[in-house]
Specification:
homodimer; 639 residues; alpha/beta; Rossmann fold; Dna Ligase, domain 1; 4 domains; seven-stranded mixed beta sheet; seven-stranded antiparallel beta sheet; 20 helices; 28 strands; 22% strand; flat
Chain lengths: 639, 639
């Protein structure tokens, strides 16, 4: 891996003297690198990489796509240690792209933006602004976003330990570089822009391990259907659904940024600040309104503005300085926010110098909101040169502090993989393919002691006395339709005549019909278990019934699980708050609920051919849990 | 009112030669004003305002609070036409402040930041940066936020038609200036930073009228309990609860900004852009990642990225220009977003010039996301000078476009006041004071045909045969406690023994106990009606029962209402989607539900002594609606 970041010799294949070519820009940039550089171009420098006599650690390739396969063959022949292909025109174009076989050398790209190691003056990108050196390890699936970040970092006096652009990930992936940055002592925090995971399971294991020691901050693009399609033509990979992404990032202890602004704010705060250990925030401000907005934000993020000092609009540096002294006297504060707006008497620069002096020995987080735009570069730079975080908008500053606290308190809980609290045996027998009927599901489910409501399949004559009234009539789950939408369910039938009418209507559309008693009280729980390709089974819990889609009150985690993790997961949902006794209310049958969930997990872990198991709803009361509807789907061509 | 913005003569009371004083800054600023200026100061200029011989249109007062009452007496004697008191030290300090009687002249302040009319070079503030002229009418309850906005506007080449800082609002309020700006031809859009409403009902009437013709954009501070307290010491007024604020802004057709960034983005977009008439967005970009993030945001805000052209990272101005031509050929696009990141070949300035040329005659919204930070001021200024909106982050740009569309489509719906579809008669009889018992409520409720569940008050012997089983036992609503929290309710009792036990437990804590049948099926609806001081009655509808507080699935509107408005309000909630037949599901008893809500509204409008009427829940089925719990509270000292 060091061949990418500390090569002793670089061959630039496609070096160019034409200023409009990427090969020209790369050539100019790489000249600054203190290692040996060999330009390769039929009309300039070496004809082919094999013509170079010395050993080549790194080849950077920037030539039209159709020539790349031949050049790669040369690189292999030359035993080049590492290859980066900047050129585009491959899988990201779909059928129209040049096809590349997986190369037998450590390989980054194609369609990427290269790498950088700023402290060694290595930069194989064609960004307008060079990445400054610093402690952020950046991995990006977008080169353009990286060039934005290089410029941003330079302005904020921040920088990068290493930079990697992923491109199409034909060879190395984010996981390889994540591991490398995890072990890289120059990297304090790891930042990623991703649009998909090359290997979900690998990510879960690796990021869970690395996030124990370094913050991992992720911005994810392509989380809506429209964005996913746009992403596919950009990096030759389809984004996973937003729910999978969020579950994966949560469970691997990563912080997910919502927007580019959120991303850069988190990078700034985590790059510069010490740990935030509790939620007691002090504000010093010359501005009432912005401080109130910051207090609102703090309050909504569970930070407590224990002390706020308004020095008023006409304060000079002296009054600011006194207020800082006063606030610093109280050692119980955990973090500080200083807000400066530009008013006639505001001495912005000397106030900033006072801040630097006062906070020199304070080992707690401090952010300064300089609401001064481009009015003064100097004042901001006084702070930045002294490694004080500057975030112009106070609401965003507070959001950054809340993330620090979230990191301190929460990121090590429930990391992947959790302890598994049930055994996994070899499954006995095989399952039918596709959607199981209720009867098929029942015989499987009963082996796992899952409590099913008493159900009659109406494929033979039934007498009214066989029913428990009132009755529910519905299509068998093998029909697969959305129950409500397809009018596949009739609730609360109280007479034989009503049952007959419902039966007639259902029988017109569905081959198999079920009868169940109508349960008359209880809350509804959703339990979903799904094999996503490339991931462990994903467990989803939350509010059930018609409310599942309306309220989206759901929490997710990848298997394996145990009692404690299930309880934690339930507590993240609102139905979970009811289960555990909301506002002094009665607890529901917690033990039976958790047991049911664990048993369902055991089932899907034992039966690898089950693609999806969905219980919706299970009816919960203080003393019972009963499954009234479930769908089981197996793979059509099971392993 | 013109005396504030176009005074022919100004007296500055507290003009000062001491550079650290506000009176000095004001003096310097007012010198630039082309009207006549009279400094008043015992040691400099005129001793007292009454010493000035000519007529004074406007007095600006910046002296210590204790001298202000005397000076106001002078101003009245002098028949000054308008007075602004900048000085602080009054009601915002609570008891410690100097008390001022309501002055008998048009009066702004005290504790305010003055006014400005930039096109006439009038500026009575002490902001470091003068407010530039433009089309935004700004009213602010925070002077500091205004000084931030002045600086921001100068950088963005935007400006203000008028500016007003409200302060403590002893005289004029936001409503007076809102009316003025509504009629001011120089004002295209009205922006407000508020922490409370001086007169809620007045706001509703006025803003509803003005928002028909001009966008009103509001940033509201103090929406959390912590923020409300902070606000009180800032402007001598307590913020109303967030729910009231949001209801008031929605129903008066205003756009509510969530953050300072959101506020400035909305000001930029609405100040510069023409109307956005449909949701079809085109993106031209040299950056895949940022465009995907923008597409995600667009998709989540119901904008459709119908066309996205990625000119790739190595594009110069020529390729950008071609792409713009291509995109502009298709006349079906409604708005445009251009994203520029800084890469080696990016010709930022000539690309911006090309944008200006291509879009000169395009009368549709365009935003350029220059992800270039401070790399180039020139490029941004090329756009800004040509009145093209520049928002650096593409996700924020898209949010701005979505607000334009929201404005076009939605803001004129359901403005206050709606048509009232029920009569209001004089109430017959008076009500008891405080919390009504079930029996008291019942006799009132029945007059309005509100359907109550059959209820027995257990204040006399009752036989098991009198119950409908299963039974619910609960404390009478006059007890006032939170039912679940106080363990004041026992559900689903099936035996005489269970009823006895429950009764015994309840009787230990509550004087009056009710018995009702347990309803076994149905969805739960919350209906709240509340008199907030200074506002019309606020109606809240949404998910009921234990879910009310957990899901906060609530929508609100001020009375009066009618069938259509109730239906619109219900549709904003998720329970409403079920009522109207979610995903092809069965409709609930819509007519009966709407009728019940209207009747409850009639009740509270007729009985002015009712402070609060809360129905939670009403149980809804396909054929019925039944109130199982309700609380009615009347004012203790009724009018």
């Amino acid at each position: 891996m060091d061949n990418f970041f500390k090569p002793r010799s670089i061959a630039l294949i496609g070096a160019s003297k034409d200023k409009t070519k990427v090969g020209y820009n790369l050539w100019q940039k790489l000249k600054a690198y203190p290692g040996r550089l060999y330009p390769v171009n039929p009309r300039f420098g070496y004809q082919r990489v094999t013509d170079i006599k010395v050993r080549i650690d790194l080849a950077v390739v920037a030539i039209p796509a159709r020539f790349v396969p031949g050049v790669l063959t040369d690189c292999v022949a030359k035993k080049v240690k590492a290859v980066i292909v900047i050129s585009s025109g491959f899988a990201e174009l779909g059928e129209a792209g040049v096809s590349l076989p997986p190369p037998p050398v450590p390989f980054l790209g194609p369609n990427c933006f290269g790498v950088a190691n700023p402290s060694r003056r290595l930069d194989t990108t064609f960004a307008k602004v060079d990445p400054p050196p610093g402690n952020i390890g950046l991995i990006s699936q977008s080169g353009a976003l990286a060039s934005y970040l290089f410029n941003w970092a330079r302005q904020e006096h921040l920088g990068f330990s290493k930079f990697i652009s992923l491109g199409n990930r034909l060879g190395l992936t984010e996981n390889d570089f994540l591991e490398y940055l995890g072990n890289d002592s120059a990297t304090k925090i790891i930042a990623l822009y991703l649009e998909s995971f090359a290997d979900g399971l690998g990510w879960l294991k690796l990021a869970s391990r690395i996030s124990r020691k370094k913050p991992i901050i992720v911005l994810f693009g392509g989380q809506t259907p429209a964005g996913r399609l746009a992403s596919q033509s950009h990096t030759a990979s389809l984004s996973p659904a937003g729910a999978v992404v969020t579950a994966a990032l949560n469970q691997s202890g990563c912080l997910q940024a919502k927007t580019i602004t959120d991303f850069t704010n988190l990078l700034e705060v985590f790059s510069l600040e010490p740990e935030l250990k509790d939620n007691d925030l002090a504000i010093v401000t010359n501005a009432g309104g912005p401080a109130i907005l910051a207090t609102d934000t703090a309050s909504s993020l569970n930070l407590d503005v224990a002390k706020a000092v308004d020095v008023l609009g006409d304060a000079g540096a002296g009054r600011f300085s006194q207020a800082l002294n006063e606030v610093l006297k109280d050692k119980t504060r955990d973090a500080y926010l200083i807000i400066i707006t530009p008013q006639a008497n505001t001495q912005i620069e000397s106030t900033c110098r006072a801040i630097v002096r006062r906070f020199r020995s304070v080992k707690k987080p401090l952010i300064v909101s300089l609401l001064t735009g481009r009015l003064t570069e100097t004042a901001g730079n006084i702070l930045r040169q002294n490694r004080i975080a500057t975030i112009e908008l106070p609401q965003e500053a507070v959001t950054g502090l809340a993330a620090l606290l979230q990191w301190h308190r929460g990121h090590k809980l429930d990391l992947y993989p959790a302890r598994r609290s049930y055994p996994i045996h070899s499954p006995s027998g095989t399952l039918p393919e596709g959607r199981l009927t209720w009867k098929q599901a029942q015989s499987l489910i009963r082996r796992y002691q899952l409590p099913l409501v008493k159900t009659i399949t109406l494929d033979q004559p039934v007498k009214p006395a066989d029913f428990s009234w009132p009755v529910v009539l519905k299509a068998d789950p093998s029909a697969g339709a959305h129950r409500t939408e397809a009018k596949a369910i009739y609730l609360n039938l109280k007479t034989g005549a009503a049952v007959k009418t419902a039966y007639r209507r259902l029988a017109q559309k569905f081959p198999l019909i079920l009868a169940q008693p109508q349960l008359t009280a209880g809350h509804e729980l959703f339990i979903g278990l799904k094999r996503e390709p490339g991931w462990p089974v994903l467990l989803t819990l939350g509010g059930g019934g018609v409310y599942t889609e309306l309220y989206r009150d759901l929490a997710r985690v990848f298997l394996p699980v145990n009692e404690k993790l299930i309880a934690n997961l339930l507590r993240q949902t609102r139905i979970g708050q009811i289960i555990f006794g909301y506002r002094n209310g009665v607890k529901l049958a917690v033990k039976a609920i958790v047991k049911l969930i664990l048993n369902a997990c055991q089932l899907i872990e034992e039966f690898q051919s089950v693609q999806e198991l969905e219980i919706n709803p299970a009816i919960l009361t203080e003393t019972s849990v009963t499954i009234v509807d479930l769908k089981i789907t197996t793979f059509r061509d099971s392993p």
